[in-house]
Write a structure and sequence with these properties.
This protein is of the alpha+beta class. The protein is 31% helix and 29% strand. It has a 4-stranded mixed beta sheet. A two-stranded antiparallel sheet has the order 2-5. It starts with a helix and ends with a strand.
Length: 94
Amino acid sequence: MYVGYYICKLNVKLNTNKMNKLTTKRFVIRKTLLGENTVITFTNKKDQTFTYDHDEVYCTFQEKFESMPCFQEYGSYTNSNTVPKFCRELSTVK
């Protein structure tokens, strides 16, 4: 892990006492969800269900997300089909 990961973890874990759950129709990383201690579950069109810790995925791949044009412009990254390949190790599939 790189130093930025640990700094990110310190910055986003403000609400560690409360776990938020969010169910969506797509994989999503949003700036507005940072520090909210959110676990996201989504089911794709192939009826695969994925669950991941939003802050963990963001902190691990912060540099990648921050460099994406969509993240810079809209403050979010989405994928309606699956968890991106680079994030799969941090999610569970049912």
